[in-house]
Design a protein that fits this description.
With 426 residues, the protein is α/β, with parallel strands linked by helices. The chain has 14 helices and 15 strands. Helix 8 packs parallel to helix 9. The structure holds pyridoxal-5'-phosphate (PLP). The site of pyridoxal-5'-phosphate has 13 residues, from helix 5 and helix 6.
Amino acid sequence: MQGAALDAAGALAQDATDPLAGFAAQFHHPYDAAGRRSVYLCGHSLGLQPKSAAQYVESELADWRRLGVLGHHEAARPWIGYHEHLTQPLAALVGAGTREVVAMNSLTVNLHLMMVSFFRPDGLRNKVLIEKSAFPSDRHAVASQLALHGLNAAEHLIEIEPRRGERTLRTADIIGGIEQESDRLALVLLPGVQYLTGQSLNLLPLIAAARRIGAAVGLDLAHSIGNTLLQLHDWDADFAVWCSYKYLNAGPGAIGGCFVHERHARRTDLPRLTGWWGHDKATRFLMGPEFRPIAGAEGWQISNPPVLSTAPLLASLEIFQRAGMQRLRHKSIALTGFLQGLIENRLRGQVDIVTPSSADERGAQLSLKILRPAAQAKRCHERLNTAGVVSDWREPDVLRLTPVPLYNSFGDVFAAVEALAQALCP
Ligand SMILES: Cc1ncc(COP(=O)(O)O)c(C=O)c1O
């Protein structure tokens, strides 16, 4: 795929030799009002629906119709342990042991649950470090956790930002910020891939720096899981949380997930918000009053899982297993590289790419800044959507385009850049 021509023929040639090309047909691609198939480059926001998702949901609806409550034990996939079918494929995607991951709740809820356990301010060690452009929900969650401890964001929230005139963060600057606060930091919370800029942080040295100064480390992997290669166990973060409606294609509001490092698997000294689903499976239905957590991430569950919104994730993870994350990432690098090449070739001087140019520092997404006054730039984006390229706009000035290796082709990327070139015409 390397060095392909930056034109329609180059796109065709790459699609012809793409070993993953067949997977696009396993997804429903949206159509516009005129009945034309959209070029969908918005998987960073909501992934497309796997065609198999309906069967997986229908299978649970059928078992519910047929069995009622007996489905908890007698459904084809008994509901009592339904979420366990997700454990192995999720562990493989994030590079963790099976005891370290669980599908549950949604991202921000999981972030709160994790902070209850891992944000333990103690004397002067009472601050949280995040990045300045963190997704607002993360900031709200952190600020409210600070407030629960009688602390406040103005004094206890450290926000790292890019250098003046730069859009993305430097690893050395984040490490500098961590070391500067040192034993005043109780928690470092970082994204894998930053939602606005598409920058993929070099997590290993960042996690190491935080652990060196004695802070707990958590990760928001909303834009990383199913996108970049992750090794959470070896990287040694304390916890990570994610959603599954973006690159994992599990549908709007689908069940989220959580990683808790093995070293915490049996800790009963940590405070946690508990519920019956986190209790020891062998004695859960004896309905006793005491709480004995399941060892590992499952011990942080509270409620029984929402089977109907979990079923599409199972469908999608089965596709991931067949495609293979290594092969997907390999294609993703080529696909996003092709997008970058076309933009640089065709739209030079009209559009800046905000996302780092090296494949190691990004996932599938490219964030673009249209070099026009704000209102005009936004109109260009609207024209792009009207032309059938589904992308999104994030205030104040970012257009996000994401070719997803499971269901986008090099032809999609070529068509999108052609449409963007038209949309930029005044
Ligand atoms: C980076 C990031 N963090 C957190 C969230 C919030 O996710 P949820 O609504 O599932 O809690 C999102 C949602 O898009 C996100 O992109």
